[in-house]
Amino acid sequence: MIVKVSSYNLKKFILYCKKYAKEHDDSFIPGDNFVPDYDHPSFLLMGKEDEIVGAASLILEEPFRKAKKGRFMVFHCLDETVDNYRKLLNSVLPNCSELDKLYLFVPEKKHTEKLFKEIGFTFERQSYLMKRELGEIPIIKLSDTYSFRNFDCEKDAEIYCEIINKSFSNMAGHITIDPPNLRKLLNETKSPDNGIQFLCYKDVPIGLVFTEFDNTLKDCISIGPVAVLPEYQGKGLGRILLRKGIEIASSNGYDSWLSVNEENTRAVKLYLSEGFKIIDHRKCYHFLL
Predict the structure, then answer these.
(1) Of the ranges 73-77, 86-90, 108-112, 191-195, which one carries the lowest mean pLDDT score?
(2) Which of 92, 113, 162, 266 maximizes the CB count within 10 A of its CB?
């Protein structure tokens, strides 16, 4: 039986997500402050003894709706059968009339991948999870015309969004970001002190690096996005920003990790050259509506 997540069962839903959701995509697992609503439709699959045996939840916030995409925060069943996953999929579909597709990332797990394909999902792309262990901090060399400065949310939200949207406009999976949604994101994440840095050319921001504490990998700080405006790309500035991210993580006593699309071979090559190693894969599957 499918039931909608409400205040009545919300705590049980969150506990289920914390325990099992990371087996699939752990990027947006609902936390203690999660509220199911228009932008986050959420459902539970109940077993014969009225226990939770599956859960599905979507991100349908404004940037995703504008892109006509919905991303699964959770899509998981304890009893992995085609019938159970189809029930969960059907539970969210009435909320997706304005969308073109749904998508999610899953680790390489042949049984689950086969199930997704059987209910209509198609493989789209693959990303790498890469890690760099704490060690020697790479040297950052800047000419006199370049400098770093701290990001200020009140003053810099627009330029942050401009750099991100221009830098990743052609990247698969990019969702356009605007200042209100950036502020919402920052309220939900925790960065180290001075963990968001602009790279400036003659005092004008032309690139940035974002670092944050998260629970994806133990004792790691995530680096990313690392972004450089298109007209400044190809000058080695991405490497400088990456090294700044490594410096931030290392100065806090943490290893570094990041995620990158497999087809972004230029970035993968850069990360490998800076000491990162591929430790896992994530496959993106989409369901066309």
Answers:
(1) 108-112
(2) 92
Residue among 120, 178, 186 at smallest CA distance from 152: 186
For residues 244 and 265, membership in a common domain is answered with yes
Contact status, residue 57 vs residue 30, Cβ threshold 8 Å: yes
Tokens of 68: 């006509």
- In this prediction the pTM is 0.87
Same domain (yes/no): 215, 255: yes
Residue 88: CB partners within 8 Å, gap ≥ 6? Answer: 2, 43, 45, 54, 55, 56, 75, 77
Q: First and final CA of the chain: distance in angstroms? A: 24
Structure tokens at 230: 């298109």
Together in a domain, 97 and 144:
no
Range of the domain at 239: 131-281
Q: Per the omega criterion (within 30 degrees of 0), is the bond before 63 cis? A: no
- Residue 262 domain-assigned? yes
Tokens of 258: 């990041």
Residues 111 and 150 in one domain: no
